[in-house]
Amino acid sequence: MPDASGPGSSATGEAAYRSHESALLSLAVELGDRLRNRQQAARTVTLTVTLGGHSQITCSHRLESGLSAHTDDLRQTLYDLYADCGSQRARIRSLTARCQQLQDAARTPKQLSLDPQRDDQLRAESAIDALNRRFGAGTVDPAAAYGRAT
Q: Cα separation of 108 and 10, whole Å?
């Protein structure tokens, strides 16, 4: 993935953080879509941050929800990993995310939720998946996953 702050960009501070956050959201959307299309769920997410000097920082977390293929679970885990890597002030060349410890989604236990917001998110995710299957991958994505309009 190209530099999340843009090649030759002088983005610093808050602008760079928003750019990285947007890149992480894009990664979460793509990973979630791939997992759901393959009918798999992941237990662990790994984030690799490549810095300006080509050194790398790799952090992994187990998903709080156990096994999941839901974009919001992946997004929150990637945001937490990014914060834990402590690379917010460094020049970041690339962000790479990987799901590990995959399991067949049919064998994944379903957690009952008493949170109506989460239920709404899961219904919306299902509708988005159906639209993307019908009209092509990436047809519907979160607006925050796109860079700032120029």
A: 44
Is the model's pLDDT at 11 over the cut of 50?
no
State which amino acid sits at residue 46: T
- Within 53-108, strands assigned E span 56-62, 92-104
Distance, in Å, from the CA atom of 121 to the CA atom of 43, rounded to the nearest integer, reads: 20
Alpha carbon of residue 93 to chain centroid: 17
Residue 4: closest CA among 31, 36, 35, 26: 26
Enumerate residues 6+ apart whose C-beta is below 8 A from 140: 128, 131, 132
pTM: 0.77
Q: What is the pLDDT of residues 122-141, one digit of tens each?
A: 888 888 888 888 888 777 87
Cβ burial, residue 97 (10 Å; 0-12/13-18/19+): buried
